[in-house]
């Protein structure tokens, strides 16, 4: 197969090629951003297939997002053609784990039709449990309990393995966790963390099964290895034999999920776990210009806790990274929107531009501005389509059709649209169901034949059961699931209910239309529902749109692994980025993670990165005067150009605007003539914002933003 291989191997540098061709034994590729780690992984996969070392279904390939999995599948297709089909085990940790769990669900007391709860369901369930335990849900919220449980699951702790000291609500943690797991089992459901946790339980209890998988997965490939958490690590270990052909690629400088239990140590542990592992370092960056790389490298160098590595590029084209101060968040949105328009006029596609924010609250200003200027944009993983009430309702119907055990789905729609089945009756049904250890639907089937419920409740319930049975039959008879969905929305009265709502009914109907359309690309209802659960996962929101032809707005976390010619990085202010939480935290751990996030952000850019910060910002309903991020100070002038002649701050027009607002608020006193160090402060939205100045930035006569030297650091912004 030598002739066939030369194609896809061509163009790799020697180290990359080594990583691709060392197919046997453990390999760790440890390298900085844009050095081709993902490309190596994809090529390696192609190489293994093209040389006939394994069949597609003998490969386990783990990517960080569903989108990355899809892209990898496509690229392999391009590289080696149809033999790439059958890559059954290529996906995120969760999607592969879900597949495995479906096959052995009974080993953890589930049926293979189990549902995967979304956060909404999960919190509703936890609320019930908290109330049942007489715990004040204002003080100990379902959300915080969900968080805690997720934390435990990320570390691979089942209720019986919870270490002493792990707790919630004064000693009730372990019991609540156990009760939650028990409830999930009766609902024939699991949450996200369970996908891996149940896998771990199954694989560690059933050695024969684990052995079978270890034999099946002849090659294992893992991207973004630096962000695996303990549970994911344990799972991988169970599936890999010690002499295994496992290749992990990662970058310790891009570890940004510590807050979710990711362990950079997994990288360091690799060599211990796999003695004799080959460690390959890649140093040439193929993505970015030298200014972008120079800025990013200087930034990350401020972190103490890192392995350290060299990065270089041959690309010395392009401008310095621009850093701009603006008046407030709106001005920032105006500036960036204008620059997007300009870039578009110069021939750049919208889809080649991205706005990467630290926190989702920053998105609104951009969305509004883009809407106003008719700049097409997508919020990747933003306010989620699947989280809209009407979509959840439709899903609840479908889930109930798929599995009658799904009491949460039952509860959600038994009286939506209104059928005259009151809350009291619903609670009674749930109570009876629980007493008898059956699902609510089972209880209902029984109750409509007795007189335990009043006749006026019984009749609509009987109709409800009859309807559900009919829709299920329709599907069983081969009517496509999306058509059944349309039918059930009409027949249940859901469509009519929305039509009657003149404020937002039409939007909801449009969304439902979008839903049935998107369902058409799934073969079975189960496949569709599984897809939905997977994309609902918190940080893996990347399925909403393909984004072609639109500016991409997303969080920095969501941008990992991606690249764009032009990247905007707004909101580089203390308290926003780095986040207030990381500043308040003891020690530098949180700050270092924020800095890695900044490094991830800058290194997404291929040709052009533009950083900005605002002097004022509305944060949670309060105007706050902002200081530029410490990360701004860490950027070297050799690669960065401070700018303020943008007309948004400092320059004449922006200055005037700012000045007039300033004059309207005499109570604050002061003025532009006294620049200098000011501490950040908050005041209410009703008050006019007070101009604040950069810690080290001062306004000069012409309104240019320059920087004064920090007494502690002579480098950086002084000039
Ligand atoms: P990140 O750490 O951000 O995930 P990465 O190390 O995975 O980055 P890739 O995304 O694989 O890097 O590669 C970055 C860019 O460089 C891609 O556009 C890729 O196609 C390109 N690239 C990688 N290797 C080569 C090469 N040998 N020749 C030309 N282009 C390359
Ligand atoms: Mg990558």
Automatic annotation (TrEMBL):
CDD domains xrefs: DEXQc_UvrD, SF1_C_UvrD
A UniProt-annotated Pfam family: UvrD-helicase
Domain (UvrD-like helicase C-terminal) ranges: 290-561
Alphabetized InterPro entries for the sequence: DExx_box_DNA_helicase_dom_sf (IPR013986), DNA_helicase_UvrD-like_C (IPR014017), DNA_helicase_UvrD/REP (IPR000212), P-loop_NTPase (IPR027417), UvrD-like_ATP-bd (IPR014016)
GO molecular function, one term: ATP hydrolysis activity
Keyword Cell inner membrane: no
Keywords linked to the UniProt accession: ATP-binding, DNA-binding, Helicase, Hydrolase, Isomerase, Nucleotide-binding
Lineage: superkingdom: Bacteria
Biological processes per GO annotation: recombinational repair
Transmembrane segments: none
Catalytic activity from the UniProt record: Couples ATP hydrolysis with the unwinding of duplex DNA by translocating in the 3'-5' direction; ATP + H2O = ADP + phosphate + H(+)
Record bears the keyword Endoplasmic reticulum: no
PANTHER family for this protein: ATP-DEPENDENT DNA HELICASE SRS2 (PTHR11070:SF2), UVRD / RECB / PCRA DNA HELICASE FAMILY MEMBER (PTHR11070)
Annotated family: Belongs to the helicase family. UvrD subfamily.
The protein, known as: DNA 3'-5' helicase
Protein source organism: Brevundimonas naejangsanensis
């Amino acid at each position: 197969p030598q002739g066939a291989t030369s194609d896809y191997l061509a163009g790799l540098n020697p180290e990359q090629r080594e990583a691709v061709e060392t197919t046997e034994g453990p390999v760790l590729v440890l390298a900085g951003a844009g050095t081709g780690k993902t490309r190596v992984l994809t090529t390696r996969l192609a190489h293994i297939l093209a040389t006939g070392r394994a069949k597609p279904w003998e490969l386990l390939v783990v990517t960080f997002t569903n989108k990355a999995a899809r892209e990898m599948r496509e690229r392999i297709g391009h590289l080696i053609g149809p033999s790439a089909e059958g890559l059954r085990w290529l996906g995120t940790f969760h999607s592969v784990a879900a597949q495995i769990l479906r096959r052995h669900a009974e080993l953890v007391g589930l049926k293979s039709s189990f549902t995967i709860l979304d956060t909404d369901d999960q919190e509703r369930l936890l609320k019930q449990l908290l109330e049942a335990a007489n715990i004040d849900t204002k003080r100990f919220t379902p959300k915080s309990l969900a968080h805690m449980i997720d934390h435990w699951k990320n570390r691979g702790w089942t209720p019986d393995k919870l270490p002493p000291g792990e707790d919630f609500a004064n000693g009730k943690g372990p019991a609540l966790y156990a009760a939650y797991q028990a409830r999930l089992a009766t609902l024939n459901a699991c949450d996200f963390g369970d996908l891996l946790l149940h896998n771990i339980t199954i694989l560690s209890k059933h050695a024969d099964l684990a052995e079978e998988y270890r034999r099946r997965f002849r090659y294992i490939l893992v991207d973004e290895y630096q962000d695996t958490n303990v549970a994911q690590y344990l799972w991988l270990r169970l599936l890999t034999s010690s002499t295994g052909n496992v290749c992990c690629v990662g970058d310790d400088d891009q570890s940004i999920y510590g807050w979710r239990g990711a362990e950079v140590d997994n990288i360091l542990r690799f060599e211990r776990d796999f003695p004799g592992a080959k460690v390959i370092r890649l140093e040439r960056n193929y993505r970015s210009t030298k200014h972008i790389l120079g800025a990013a490298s200087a930034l990350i160098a401020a972190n103490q806790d890192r392995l350290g590595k060299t990065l270089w590029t041959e690309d010395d084209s392009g401008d310095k990274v621009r850093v701009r101060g603006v008046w407030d968040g709106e001005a920032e949105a105006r500036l960036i929107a204008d620059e997007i328009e300009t870039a578009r006029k110069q021939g750049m596609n919208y889809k080649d531009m991205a706005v990467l924010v630290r926190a989702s609250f920053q998105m609104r200003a951009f969305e509004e501005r883009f809407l106003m200027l008719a700049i097409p944009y997508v919020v990747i993983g933003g306010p989620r389509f699947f989280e809209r009430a009407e979509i959840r309702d439709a899903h609840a119907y479908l889930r109930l059709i798929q599995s009658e055990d799904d009491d949460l789905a039952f509860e959600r729609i038994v009286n939506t649209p209104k059928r005259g089945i009151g809350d009291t009756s619903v609670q009674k049904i749930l109570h009876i169901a629980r007493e008898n250890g059956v699902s609510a639907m089972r209880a209902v089937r029984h109750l409509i034949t007795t007189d335990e419920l009043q006749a006026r409740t019984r009749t609509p319930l009987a109709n409800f059961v009859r309807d559900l049975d009919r829709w299920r039959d329709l599907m069983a008879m081969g009517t496509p699931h999306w058509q059944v969905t349309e039918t059930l929305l009409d027949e249940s009265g859901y469509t009519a209910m929305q039509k009657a709502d003149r404020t937002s009914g039409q939007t909801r109907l449009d969304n439902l239309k979008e839903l049935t359309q998107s369902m058409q690309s799934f073969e079975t209802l189960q496949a569709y529902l599984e897809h939905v659960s997977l994309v609902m996962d918190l940080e893996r929101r990347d399925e909403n749109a393909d984004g072609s032809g639109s500016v991409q707005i997303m969080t920095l976390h969501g941008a990992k692994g991606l690249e764009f010619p032009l990247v905007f990085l707004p909101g580089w202010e203390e308290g926003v980025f780095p986040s207030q939480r990381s500043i308040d935290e003891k020690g530098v751990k949180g700050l270092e993670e924020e800095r890695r996030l900044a490094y991830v952000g800058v290194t997404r850019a291929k040709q052009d990165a533009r950083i900005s910060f605002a002097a004022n910002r509305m944060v949670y309903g309060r105007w706050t005067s902002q200081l530029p991020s410490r990360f701004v100070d860490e950027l070297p002038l050799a690669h960065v150009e401070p700018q303020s002649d943008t007309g948004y701050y400092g320059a004449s027009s922006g200055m005037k605007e700012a000045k007039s607002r300033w004059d309207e608020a005499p109570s604050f006193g002061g003025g532009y003539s006294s620049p200098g160090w000011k501490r950040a402060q908050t005041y209410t939205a009703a008050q006019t914002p007070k101009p604040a100045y950069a810690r080290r930035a001062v306004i000069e006569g012409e309104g240019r933003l320059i920087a004064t030297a920090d007494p502690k650091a002579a480098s950086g912004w002084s000039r």
